[in-house]
Amino acid sequence: MGETLEMRSYFIRCVPEGNIPYREGVKPETFQARDNISNFISWTRHLGIPEVLSFETDDLVLRKNEKSVILCLLEVARVGAKLGMLAPTLVQMEEEIDAELAGEEPLPRAQIQTCDLRSLDERVRDLISRCTCPVQFPMIKVSDGKYKIGDTKSLIFVRILRNHVMVRVGGGWDTLENYLNKHDPCQCNYR
Fold it and tell me: How confident is the model at residue 153 (pLDDT cuts 50, 70, 90)?
């Protein structure tokens, strides 16, 4: 894209690169939950969120001070809005109020689409619809993330990883597109 983003903030210097270490499926009030929250708090410090707008792990885990958690999340949302991400309505209203107080007309801001908001099933159906055979390659949803595929009615597991629909193959994962290129007779000759 070649665009440079201007960060207009008194305390944000740069956006830390990389993902926040995160464990999925942890139970509330466990060590792993506390670890996830601690990693997020460390990330906000690297982002440059001031200590007065931060919170402590117990503020969220034990719900000691939910106001601090909300203030921190709003500040992260403000930073995201300055980078072109869709801001919560409250942050958008703040910006409109600031513009009105300054006697300016609030300008609509171009939003960056950060992810594909279609559901897993919609994305699977989109990939399957590429089949141009008179009798389409069968892929039937059994439950969330589980599909019966092909004439054999084999059960496969599907999930979204970043912007890709992934299929469980053997002991690993492959993209659904590659899987279909190998198993759908119509798409095998596509490339």
Answer: low
pLDDT surpassing 50 at residue 168: yes
The type of residue at 62 is L
Residue labelled with tokens 């002991």: 171
Q: Kindly report the CA angle at 170 between 167 and 172, in degrees rounded to 5?
A: 60
Pairing of strands 139-143, 154-161: unpaired
Cα 14 to Cα 189: distance, rounded to the nearest angstrom: 47
Report d(CA 138, CA 154) in Å as an integer.
Answer: 11
Residue 167 exposure: Cα atoms within 13 Å on the Cβ side: 23
Q: How confident is the model at residue 150 (pLDDT cuts 50, 70, 90)?
A: confident
Q: Per-residue pLDDT tens for 7-34?
A: 445 555 567 677 788 888 888 888 999 9
Rounded Cα distance, 181 and 189, in Å: 8
Residue type (1 letter), 65: N
CB atoms within 10 A of CB 170: 6
In angstroms, the first-to-last Cα distance of the chain is 28
Rounded to an integer, what distance in angstroms lies between the CA atom of residue 45 and that of residue 16? 10
pTM, rounded to two decimals: 0.47
Q: How many CB atoms lie within 10 A of CB 135?
A: 8
User: Beta strands of the chain (E only): which ranges?
Assistant: 139-143, 146-149, 154-161, 164-169, 172-175
